[in-house]
From TrEMBL:
Originating species: Erythrobacter fulvus
Name of this chain's protein: DUF429 domain-containing protein
Source organism superkingdom: Bacteria
Length: 294
């Protein structure tokens, strides 16, 4: 028996601009039926502030999955930003720092953080353009730093990208930083698991990785994007969900949101997913976790 009435998946974007074609929202009802896209208030796409407003006015008890990193690596160096005296001690402090340094950035953008004299040293900004602290001393890979949850994801056969990476189609750095600005502005009005304890009732925000959902939906191969209604409905069927209406091509933002909403409904009662072995109190407080990583 579920205590949630709605399952909302948010495919996020860290791109510049007032409205984002790369943001897609879909909801699945506990009562059943196919997942449904949530139309943005403007045909040009969602504004990040509009998603924030929606999260502050959720229906019933909603389990929200955000496709972004809710934290940065901490466990590998006992700090988000080793060597910087402003490095915060926990995720709430990280969100506040990012939002403060981006105070002049419109649309919940994160340019003020990635160009900050100190913060910029920890990021990869372009091909061959890295801050002098992007890699830890003695690093054995050029990929950058990873969270404990991302190591668990790799064990599940997907390939997350470091949240300190700001370049490439697969980069998640800007998405995560803009998302953390939004989380700070939630102001605790909706708990963000596991940074905040899982409450016995009400809505909860979690981090998701759509590739994990796609794998359970039977999507195979190196790429986990679904770009046709036929492939989407095959994956939904594997998750025990009724199909959505449509045929031919579908953009991968919409398919990610639809598939992941159905996945949240399917797997959220698995107690093990709320208690992964590597999720210690320290990891929860600093790095957070990706729901579904185990």
């Amino acid at each position: 028996m579920t205590r949630f009435s709605h399952f909302l998946a948010v495919d996020w974007s860290g791109a510049k601009g007032a409205r984002q074609k790369g943001i897609a929202l879909a909801v699945a009802l506990a009562a059943g039926g196919p997942p449904v896209l949530v139309a943005p208030p403007d045909p040009r796409g969602w504004a990040r502030s509009e998603v924030l407003a929606l999260l502050l006015d959720l229906p019933g008890a909603t389990l929200v999955g955000l496709d972004l990193g809710i934290g940065l690596p901490f466990a590998d160096a006992s700090a988000f930003f080793p060597g910087w005296d402003a490095s915060p001690p926990d995720a709430h402090g990280l969100w506040a720092l990012i939002d403060a340094l981006c105070a002049d950035d419109p649309y919940l953008e994160a340019g003020g953080f990635v160009t900050h004299q100190q913060a910029s040293r920890y990021f990869r900004h372009g091909k061959g353009i890295e801050g002098d602290r992007f890699l830890l001393p003695g690093a054995t890979t050029r990929e950058g730093r990873f969270r404990v949850a991302e190591a668990a994801q790799r064990g599940q056969g997907v390939r997350p990208v470091s949240n300190f990476n700001l370049v490439g189609a697969a980069q998640v750095g800007k998405s995560s930083l803009t998302g953390m600005r939004m989380l700070h502005r939630l102001g605790g009005r909706v708990p963000v698991w596991p940074v905040d304890p899982l409450p016995d009732s009400g809505s909860v925000v979690t981090e998701i990785y759509t590739s994990v959902a796609a794998r359970l939906g039977g999507v195979k191969g190196a790429a986990t994007k679904v770009r046709s209604y036929e492939a989407l409905n095959d994956a939904l069927d594997a998750l025990g969900s009724p199909p959505v209406t449509g045929s031919g091509a579908i953009d991968d933002h919409s398919s990610d949101a639809l598939l992941t909403a159905a996945w949240l409904r399917r797997v959220h009662t698995d107690r093990d997913l709320w208690h992964p072995p590597a999720l210690t109190a320290g990891v929860a407080r600093t790095e957070g976790w990706t729901f579904g990583a185990f």
